[in-house]
Amino acid sequence: MIPQLSKFLGPSNLRKCSPEAYRKLREILCKFEQGAILGNDIQLTDKEIKANETIMCLKMEEYNRGVKDPNQFAPGYHIFERLHEIEKSPLFQLIRKMPKGGALKTHDTSMCSTKFLIGLTYRSHLWACTVDDGCKILEFRFSKEMPTKMRHENGKWEKMDELRDRRGEVNMKKQLLQHFSMYPLSELQTNDKAWDHMMSIFSLLHGLLTYYPVWGEYYYNALKEFSEDGVQYVETRTLLNPLYCLGGNKLPVKETLQVYNEELRRFKADHPDFIDSKIIYSPLRHTTPENMGGHVKTCTELNKEFPKLLVGFDLVGQENEEYPLKMFVNELLKMPSHIKFYFHAGQTNLYGSPLDENIIDALLLGTRRIGHGYALTKHPLIMQLVKRFSIAIEVCPICNQVLQLGADYRNHPAATLIANDIPFVLSSGNPSFWRTKPLSHDFYMAFLGIAPRNADLKFLKRTAKNSMRHSALTDEEKATAMQKWKSKWDEWIDYTIENADDIMKQPEK
Q: Per the record's keyword annotation, is Metal-binding included, yes or no (predicted)?
């Protein structure tokens, strides 16, 4: 592009050009720049152009109000400070109804709403391990008798129904609301503390969700909540924890996948418009090369039993200098090529560290997508290669903010990805812990706060289509997926046109 522009600009001092020439050169530069933005390849239909008028009116109203009074611009604040206000926004409500395609980065035990999680605590035979006279719950366990083991010193096992009776219904609900999410996060100041908080929630939910009768219902409900938020396809990273029964015995790991398989089949039968779901086996990255070899073997064997369900491999957990991705290269190269890599990498605001350099190893290992890739813009060569090889970046704006990587969405590095038309998909990571919708809040923040002011329906459409283009679906499955998505998309476009007046007049409740 630079050589093309050079012939217009010429070698001379630009200050010597006439005002008319200056205006023409400026127009040329702006067109070149706008033509390079993600979504510029989309051609809108007549109906989409009409719907776009409503969408952009809503966006400009919020954007211009934010310019006049920055205190009213949601992307300039922490999500927890504006969560309830955002849900009153007409733009957000319209985005909620939008078919978003797929959510390609979700984690097994952080998908369902807090309301659903609290409902699980009313199940029979549930015990809670508490400290401080029941004021803090550290662990859950389903058991006929009082559990004999606990992961925490000085804890006390108590039946959940008796604890609720003793503490009171209102107090217990308030306590669980606090335990099951990071909201409001006011006391967390660093990335490490935020990670510790998030991992404590995963630990707390482990015994509640890995109970065999609960796990299937949890996964089915997760698909339901995502579907209700306009998501027709879901890829889930999972540790594949063994499920346990009421007597305490653990089931083989393949039983966990079998539950996934059965519940997915049941959900698709109940919801014909839903496309599919795939599993990415994702053990913790804080391990040894020897153990990594075991994970590769497990993934290979399970893929043979569930070839259409378990299709990929990743490593999860906070990146740190002790466990860089390059540490496991020898073992990872033994993975059969048909099992694709989808590595988390560069989820950091550091530069020149083993953490951001994980992006280099992810690319060299042939990853199909990069989870977060927050540090990618600091590596321009890798960014060019990512575009060259069509490796999509899984951008999770709210997750990045909650984990203290950046405070203002307008400064999110994904803006540079958009400006350079780097392939990316929007996802939420752990919406359960943020108390956000499965994907709508991330779309809203990206559309209003990260994308440029003039980004319109083309941006939304390209982002939704990218989620299927860069999914783990086969080419044949992608064709079917696009048909199902387009049907929903056309319905949403018609809805926007037919209800434009009501949408524009919708009051902020």
A: yes
What is the DSSP-derived secondary structure letter of residue 354?
Answer: T
Residue among 4, 40, 3 at smallest CA distance from 419 = 40
Q: CA 115 to CA 470: how far, in whole Å?
A: 32
Strands 340-341 and 344-345: unpaired
Tell me, what DSSP letter sits at residue 235? Answer: E
Length of the chain: 509
- Indicate left, alpha or beta for 351 from its phi (over 0: left) and psi (-120 to 50: alpha): beta
Specify the DSSP class assigned to residue 144.
S
| Residues lower than pLDDT 70 in the chain | 1-15, 186-188, 506-509
Quote the pLDDT of residue 509: 42
pTM metric for this prediction: 0.94
CA distance 349 to 95: 29
Would you say 86 and 74 are in contact if contact means Cβ atoms under 8 Å apart? Answer: yes
* Separation of alpha carbons 504 and 212, rounded Å: 47
pLDDT in tens, 34-84: 777 777 889 999 999 999 999 999 999 999 999 999 999 999 999 999 999
Residue 37 pLDDT:
78
Q: CB–CB of 491/122 below 8 Å?
A: no
172, burial (CB in 10 Å: exposed 0-12, middle 13-18, buried 19+): buried
Question: Among residues 312, 317, 284, which one has the least CA distance to residue 299?
Answer: 312
As a whole number of angstroms, the distance between CA 453 and CA 109 comes to 36
